[in-house]
Structure to design on (602 residues):
């Protein structure tokens, strides 16, 4: 049993980058921590005050609110290894990936 | 095509240099090195608006809002109160050190833009300050994205009809405009703030590099950062186009009035130049005393002597300064020249003048100010003071000390002779092994005047101007030569002789 992840993803309307981020992120989460996460998706156009509170500048921005430490990952989540790093999930089992990830 | 509409910033003196203010509804880039007062400029731009009913949004990429609130208290700006009143909105975009971010794919700054737009709409912002661009470049890896997004931000602000200031770093005071080349894509309007070390003196200047499609003054203008008021720009507008009257005033000495063709002009600047001890301070004393007698308000700004010395001297010539001050029509302000920079002196002098509202002003002496600064700053000081005085239609008498006892002219004279209306020279004249004093009205704009060099004496009743020096030439050059009446007649005759 692992820890439970509380995640917030800030997106901007239905921009392609944000749609890609939602898609990529869900895939990673389902693979890595199925059933152990809660993902809240916030559109900054609708809730700028929440973006204000979390001091979000870039979209998409993923904030891992727990477990500590709080960490941010920005971008369309296409760089899987970076997302894993940002979430503190450690390197992928069996494969050591270095350098450019496509 | 008419120029762009301007929004007055109300930053003291700046709007004169900017010919009305910043281009309205546009973003203006303010670039400067570290310590050039960029943040003060950005904050003051909002403050002056808020004080006039225009709410503002401050976007900070660098210092946390708490630091800015605290640092600006020294200027008397109570930001927390304005925040509570919904007139100031802090958008904290400063780096959150505890939350290091990872970049995992393509992104933009959509959230930033959405927040700015939302904040502007929420408080009805007319002004936005963004401080500073360099800090946001260091928060993200991809500078091309930041550039594109800043460009989009300027477009959003324009759509909202908000006038904005965007600050950016420079690595040196003279060189490339900004560190990240921001000016090329963000803004058509660029202002440079400088803080240059010059002859061991710090000199702050502001220069408007460009306002696309709008007029502005060219070149560098000095400014100072003053407690309780912020940035004060010294606009070096020459005093042309001021109304000038033909009204004469009593110089304080009837004989001098006579030499000047009936007294000084009401709104003129008179320069009195002479070596130490020739009687400049006496002329100031009589000028002041004569003003008070006529019911005018008189102000002395003294940089050479202490109050006690001034009062004692005046007493020695039969003028009771203590009594005159008691009447409320005269004020003596003594300032130690080295106490502050020349820019601060000018700002303080203006403040004293504004407060007392004198009809007559005497500055004794300009040379004391010249001593503490560079020629360039001194020249700007003199021009700044003269134009300020002329706008207020008062008679001003400035003294300048020449370096040599007899003849000679100080650097001062060269700087200011063209912007003063009248020049009176006082000189020692060595004749027959005796030091005597001579005086001449060198220039009197708009009036005939006596052109002779007259001898004068000083006693317990003040200055007495007598007859012209006869049969002497070369006084002003410091080499008086006795010439016989016969020679003089020959010379004069020779001048008009018809050679044919």
């Amino acid at each position: 049993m692992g820890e439970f992840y509380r995640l917030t993803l800030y997106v901007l309307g239905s921009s392609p980058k944000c749609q890609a981020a939602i898609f990529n992120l869900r895939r990673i989460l389902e693979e890595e921590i199925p059933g152990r996460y809660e993902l809240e998706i916030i559109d900054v156009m609708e809730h700028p005050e929440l973006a204000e509170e979390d001091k979000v500048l870039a979209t998409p921005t993923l904030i891992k609110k727990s477990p500590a430490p709080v960490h941010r990952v920005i971008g369309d989540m296409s760089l899987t290894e970076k997302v894993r790093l940002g979430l503190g999930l450690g390197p992928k089992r069996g494969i050591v990936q270095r350098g450019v990830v496509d | 095509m008419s120029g762009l509409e301007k929004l007055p910033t109300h930053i003291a003196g700046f709007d004169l240099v900017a010919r009305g203010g910043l281009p309205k509804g546009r973003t203006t880039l303010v670039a400067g090195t570290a310590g050039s007062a960029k943040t003060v400029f950005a904050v003051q731009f909002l403050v002056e608006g808020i004080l006039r009913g225009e709410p503002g949004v401050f976007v900070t990429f660098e210092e946390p809002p708490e630091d800015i609130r605290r640092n600006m208290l020294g200027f008397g700006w109570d930001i927390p109160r304005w925040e509570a009143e919904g007139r100031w909105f802090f958008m904290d975009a400063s780096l959150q050190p505890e939350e290091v971010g990872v970049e995992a794919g393509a992104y933009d700054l959509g959230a930033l833009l959405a927040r700015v737009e939302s904040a502007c709409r929420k408080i009805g912002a007319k002004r936005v300050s963004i401080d500073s661009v360099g800090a946001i470049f260091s928060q993200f890896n991809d500078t091309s994205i930041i550039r594109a997004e800043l460009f989009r931000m300027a477009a959003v602000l324009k759509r909202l009809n908000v006038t904005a200031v965007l600050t950016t770093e420079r690595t040196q005071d003279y060189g490339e405009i900004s560190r990240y080349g921001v000016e090329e894509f963000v803004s058509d309007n660029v202002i440079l703030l400088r803080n240059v070390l010059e002859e061991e003196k710090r000199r702050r200047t502001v220069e408007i590099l460009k306002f696309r499609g709008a007029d502005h003054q060219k070149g560098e203008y000095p400014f100072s950062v003053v407690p309780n008021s912020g940035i004060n720009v010294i606009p070096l507008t020459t005093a042309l186009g001021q109304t000038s009257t033909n009204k004469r005033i009593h110089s304080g000495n009837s004989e001098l009035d006579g030499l000047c063709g009936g007294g000084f002009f009401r709104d003129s600047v008179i320069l009195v130049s002479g070596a130490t001890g020739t009687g400049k301070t006496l002329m100031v004393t009589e000028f002041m005393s004569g003003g008070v007698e006529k019911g005018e308000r008189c102000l002395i700004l003294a940089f050479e002597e202490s109050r006690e010395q001034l009062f004692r001297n005046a007493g020695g010539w039969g003028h009771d300064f203590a009594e005159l001050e008691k009447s409320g029509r005269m004020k003596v302000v003594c300032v130690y020249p080295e106490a502050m920079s020349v820019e601060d002196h000018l700002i303080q002098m203006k403040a004293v003048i504004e407060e007392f509202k004198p009809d007559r002003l005497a500055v004794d002496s300009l040379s004391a100010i010249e001593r503490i600064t560079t020629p360039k700053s001194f020249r700007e000081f003199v021009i700044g003071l003269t134009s300020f005085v002329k706008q207020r239609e008062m008679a001003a008498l400035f003294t300048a000390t020449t370096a040599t006892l007899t003849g000679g002219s100080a650097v001062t004279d060269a700087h200011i002779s063209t912007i003063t209306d009248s020049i009176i020279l006082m000189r020692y004249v060595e004749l027959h092994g005796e030091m005597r004093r001579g005086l001449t009205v060198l220039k009197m704009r708009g009036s005939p005047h006596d052109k002779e060099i007259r001898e004068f004496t000083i006693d317990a009743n003040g200055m007495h101007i007598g007859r012209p020096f006869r049969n002497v030439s070369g006084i002003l050059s410091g080499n008086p030569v006795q010439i016989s009446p016969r020679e003089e007649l020959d010379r004069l005759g020779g001048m008009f002789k018809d050679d044919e």
